[in-house]
Amino acid sequence: MLISIRKRTVPGLGERLIALRKSRGLSQQVLATKAGISIPRLRDAERFGAATTETLNLLAHALATDVDTLLGRKGGE
């Protein structure tokens, strides 16, 4: 059985990720390590707003926030 993992593009995600990462004083390397993802995966999210649900969950946890904040569904920090 083949399982498809689909990236979705979320408008504004990249900007929110960068702002949160910088507000916490984290480099891309440190955030990627904390989240348990590769740097290219983080760069895709920051540059293109493209991420899987799994990546969003990992980044939200590493940034001590929630997915709704990353997606812009509620007020930012």
From TrEMBL:
Ranges in coiled-coil conformation: none
Gene3D superfamilies in the cross-refs: lambda repressor-like DNA-binding domains (1.10.260.40)
GO molecular function: DNA binding
Entries under SUPFAM superfamilies matching the protein: lambda repressor-like DNA-binding domains
The HTH cro/C1-type domain, residue ranges: 17-70
Domain of life: Bacteria
InterPro entries on file: Cro/C1-type_HTH, Lambda_DNA-bd_dom_sf
Record-linked Pfam families: HTH_3
CDD domains referenced in this protein's UniProt entry, alphabetically: HTH_XRE
PROSITE patterns in alphabetical order: HTH_CROC1
Name of the protein in question: HTH cro/C1-type domain-containing protein
Organism in which the protein naturally occurs: Cystobacter ferrugineus
